Amino acid sequence: MKYQTLLPAAALTAILIAPGCGSKEGTITETPAAGGAAVTKVDPATAATVTGKVSFAGQAPAKVVLRMDAEPDCKGLHSTPAVGEEVVVNANRTLANVFVYVKAGLEGKTFEASTGSVQLDQKGCIYRPHVLGVRTGQTVSIANSDPTTHNIHPMPAVNREWNQSQTPKAPNLDKQFPRTEIMIPVKCNVHPWMKSWIGVLDHPFFAVTGDQGTFELKGLPPGDYTIEAWQEKYGKQEQKVTLAASASQAIEFTFKSQ
Amino acid sequence: MHNPGLHRFATLTAAATFCLIVAGALVTSNEAGLAVPDWPLSYGSLMPPWVGNIRYEHSHRLAAGVVLLLTAALAAWLARRETRRWVRRLGYAALGAVLAQALLGGITVLFLLPMPVSVLHAVLAQAFFSTTVILALVTGRDWAAPAAAVLDAARPSLAVLAKAGAAGVLAQLLLGAALRHQGLGIIPHLVGAGVVMGLALWILARVSGRHFLEARLLRPAAAQALLVTFQLVLGATAYLARLATQDAVQPLPLVIWPTVAHVAVGALTLAAAVWMAVEAWRLTAEAVS
Question: Given 3-state DSSP classes, what are the helix, strand and coil percentages for chain A, each rounded to the nearest 5?
């Protein structure tokens, strides 16, 4: 890899802060991408990590059973009643389906585009996963694994809205979202309980919490960042972190029952 | 001259239009407006997969097709047999309205429910229904029978008051549709409800006080006041049901049915208000002439 000069802004920042802040001396280089924009390369030796978990405080809301009675093709796919995923409290009192991402601190940096696609499936008349993250321009490959017809209807604020049907066994729909947006609701108008959320970012530093409620944002250049956690019902929280070279910092978000 | 066949057909058209409004309300309440992404065909065919919310949306389209045919036939029948020019014109207006409705419905689907178009679609539906009700009314035996003119010296005149009542209901339906399609909050609709109720009671008080023996005025005035009262109950029920279930996965039948009933009775309220306005205009105009 041929290393080029540092971004003038990054160099100026490094000069200004270096005397009193040795912890931010990580190496960032930029290489021109195919399209001409400089791509930020983070030196693995200095790359930092933010880890953490999203906790839940208070009484967990009752599980909401999804009404699939009028749709035998959907109801028959579940041995027990399917429940909504708006709030999923894990056994360890953490929350699943929380989208955690770097909200600020990466301005002016461009990262290599993601190769490959992100999968969104319609299975059991439920979107899988319920929350997902994707890079701008990255392909979201939407599958219909159900024996019934669905329609996929993202309702973005800054990307283009569309609505497309997908019959059983139809080929995957491959779609991209070119603009950063937190979050895009996706719904199926045929089965109105079906809802999913897509977070679109122009960098790769995001994660969705799972059944342990944890997240990891790794490979970050040293610096100051704002980390935001988004939860469908409880909204957003943010924390500021300062990452030294090669540092690993743990943070915790706590959402409270309403 | 009274034509019983034409009157029955106009009544059938009005009844079918009322069913169409209920079908449309079910589409919105079940969030089924975009369950069929294409238009005028449904999933590229006349009979799409009969699953989920496609049933509501396609039923609405089929009902709209039936009403379109009925309205076209009614307009043609009026053009051939009706001697009153203004009634023939009302038939043409109804046909134009139902064609515009079809177009607005298509635009809502193809442009993913733009709020102003959805609101216009909802309000024009109510206005169209009132037009069909008036066509049924003016082709009926009662309208053809000679009527004693009503002297109305009060100010504002009953005709003006009744027109204001009808305009108020139409404006209130506009506010309700804007609320339903997230264009406005609840406050304007609540204020509108108070205005509409006040006008309905004023009209009823005027008619019962000065024209109590004139059934042609008393019936629509009473119908309007009763329907507005019922509307208030239904509106409150629908709103409270939504508040009570705001944490549930919508749509729920507990919210759907009061809301659909609220839309349907809204259509009947407008029809009653327009009926009142037409009767007041006719009877007091005859007195003047």
Answer: 10, 45, 45
